[in-house]
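Morning F.,

Quick status update on the modeling queue. The single chain you submitted on Monday has been processed. Sequence for confirmation:
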Amino acid sequence: MRKTALLPILGAVLLTACDPGVQTDFIPPEKLVAVSAALSPQDSLLAVYLYRGQPLGKVAPEEQTVERGATVELSDGTRTVRLVYQPARLRYERPAAALPILAGNAYFLTVKTADGIALKSQCRVPPAVTDLRIAGTQQPNDFEFEITWTAPPDQPFAWVRGRTASASTTGPNFSGNVRFDGTGGPDFVGAWLTDQQRDGRNTLTGRVLDAARRKPLSLNIEILNLEPALHRFLVDTRDLNTFNANTDGFIPTFREPRPVASNVEGGVGIFAAYNRSETVLMIP
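C-alpha cells below.
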C-alpha cells in the first residue's frame, strides 16, 4: 500500500517535540503524548504514529517511546473508523477504503491512551494543483528543467519534491542530484518548500546534476499542496535540522528548548492534510 515518505519525517521530528526540556501547557514530560499523522487522497493507507515523552534525564530509542494500547479513531463527521496497532510498523493503521480522504473535506482525530490521556485534532484536505508539466534541455553536464502548474485560489503553501531513477535498472530513486532554483535555495535535498504559491499559473526552474553521465533517467516531480499547519510544521522541521547540522558536535547548543509547531489538543504533534500531484519526464 502506498504511503508517502512524509510520515517518517514527521515521526522522527516529533521525538524532538517531546524533548524533556520542553513542557507544553505544563504537561509533565512522561504524560506528554505526541501525534504524527498526515492524510492525503492519494494514499491507500491511514496511519497514525503515537509517541510518549520520557522523564527528565532519560533518553530512550524511538521504539521504546511508541505509545501502544491506545484507542485511535478517525472520522469525517459522519463515519468513524478505529485504527489497529501494527507492532511490526510501530503505528496504528487502517486501509484508506474504510474512510476515503477527499479534497475539501474535514477529518477529525481522537486518541485515548490506556492510562486515560485524551487528545484530539482536525484537518481539512486542500485541493490539488492541476496541469503539472515539465520541460527541459540537456546542457554539457546538467539537465535544466522548468516546471509549470496551475494552483487553485488561496493555496499559497506547497512542497515541491524531485527525484530521479535510472531508466535502465530497478535501482532506488535518488533525490540528491535534483536542485531547485527557488528563493533561498532548496529547503531539503531535492525539495523546495514555499508559502508563495500564486493563484493560477506557477513556474519553478531547476536542474538534475551530472545527468549526462547518468542517462537514461526518469525525473519525477511531485507538488504537495499543504494545509497551513503542515507548512508550519515543515518549516520548524527545516529550521531544527539546519540548527542541529550547524552545531552538533562543534559548539554547545545554547538555544532555548522549544516545541515544533503543534495542532494537537491535549498533547503535541501534527495532524494535517495535503494533496499530491505528480508527473514524470524521461531524460533520454
